[in-house]
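Lecture notes, unit on protein representations.

Consider one protein chain, 118 amino acids long.
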Amino acid sequence: KGVYKTELLQEGINLMWFMNWNDEGVIHHKYFNFFPVRALALVLTAIECCINEWLQGIKEDIKFTSATYGAVYNSHLGSLLCFDERTAPYKLLERICTNLHDIGWYVLTYSSVLTFML
């Protein structure tokens, strides 16, 4: 699919910010359209934490704190900003973030319609 376009990333965003009509991505729509790059870095960091918890094949609780994952977050943010800089003429990161937002809204709206119909 491409860099920064995995189903896991979209699923995390949907669950955190677009799960129901009271979530932050819905209530504070103007701040999430397009999806914030810093929030994207946070989701990538959370995914890395989850991977680390299962690294040995057995789930190990790892605290998700700024002390533990601050450097990881900054690394992901730096990679995103570098990606944005190097693909600036194509506005790829903006398009990815817009797509992440739009799919979050679509899934919320579509699931709401299905719930209403049932």
